[in-house]
Write a structure and sequence with these properties.
Elements lengths: L1 E7 L5 E8 L19 E5 L6 H15 L5 E6 L14 H20 L6 E6 L2 H16 L8 E7 L15 H5 L3 E6 L4 H18 L9 H4 L4 E7 L4 E7 L5 E5 L23 H14 L10
Helix pairs in contact: 2-3
């Protein structure tokens, strides 16, 4: 069964979520625990610069590929279409992504419960929505591995920092609770290569942040990082190395395939066919959801 879950409120705001069956979008489901009867629920989340109709068209096409008996696929629409261009992920859309994560975690609590497993397939800034959501679920579980279980996560061209799966203060701890986090990344991604480092730098300059900034996870792949810490009264700076979470499965797409930012999800134009790259991603994601241990990007 395929569902649409929209967090798009008026004026670019984030609402509490409107759930509808894809085949009957006018039929809003208001009952709690509406999805509790499924073996597992998979959420599909688009990235930035995506309007409502484009998100619906693209994600519903992927949902049809992934839908199977006994499971639910829910494609998530959120206000990811800021008019200020590629830098918007650092500002309006970054905050909207975080607000969406709060509402998505509440939705899981109210409509799925804390026992049934969930999966996430996310693209670009939708990966931030996903990772923030699993952080919230981790806090809600209070350390119990059996509460709010997360099975498979696939991060496609993730517009988050490349070290974010290494640092406990970011997403490392919650990532360790999952069965697997697949990270697909490509050095041919022109959007992440050109705009992500500049957006991070601009954000740090405006808000006087002292965090590291640099390449995106979806461009560079997951990286270890060294940080400086003060110990004791002597305030000696010592370097501490943080390693990528053990549940992370990085997949670098060979540059010979020339996979760019738009080559991950199906086209939003319903009359356009999936290209070979998009079909390869759909097959890989499907295999990941099946729990296959050997994942291959193959055209």
């Amino acid at each position: 069964m395929i569902y649409e879950l929209s967090f798009r409120g008026p004026g670019g705001s984030v609402n509490s979520g409107i759930l509808s069956p894809y085949e009957d979008l006018g039929n809003v489901i208001v009952a709690e625990h509406a999805l509790i009867g499924y073996e597992q629920v998979t959420f599909l989340i688009h990235g930035f610069k995506v309007n409502k109709q484009a998100g619906r068209n693209s994600l519903s096409r992927l949902a049809k590929i992934l839908a199977n008996k006994g499971n639910a696929v829910v494609f998530v629409l959120w206000p990811g279409d800021s008019p200020i261009g590629p830098f918007s992920y650092s500002f309006t859309e970054g905050y909207q992504a975080d607000d969406t994560a709060v509402q998505l975690a509440r939705f899981i609590e109210n409509h799925i419960g804390n026992v049934n497993p969930v999966n996430f397939i996310a693209h670009s800034l939708g990966c931030r929505v996903t990772l923030e959501t699993i952080n919230i679920l981790y806090k809600m579980a209070e350390g119990d591995q059996d509460i709010y279980p997360v099975n498979q996560i696939c991060l496609l061209a993730a517009a988050v920092d490349d070290y974010s799966l290494s640092v406990p203060e970011k997403y490392k701890i919650s990532a360790e609770r999952t069965q697997r986090v697949v990270v697909l990344h490509s050095v041919k991604d022109k959007i992440l290569r050109r705009y992500y480092p500049l957006g991070d730098l601009l954000q740090a300059f405006i808000f006087f942040w002292k965090e590291s900034f640099g390449f995106a996870l979806g461009y560079h792949g997951p990286k270890n990082i060294q940080s400086k810490r003060n110990f004791g009264n002597q305030y000696k700076n010592r370097k501490r190395k943080h390693y990528v979470a053990t549940k992370v499965f990085p997949m670098k797409i060979d540059k010979k395939y020339n996979v760019d930012h738009g080559d991950y999800l199906p086209p939003s134009n319903n009359s356009a066919h999936l290209n070979d790259k998009q079909e390869a991603i759909a097959n890989l994601v499907s295999n990941a959801l099946e729990g296959e241990s050997e994942l291959v990007y193959k055209i």
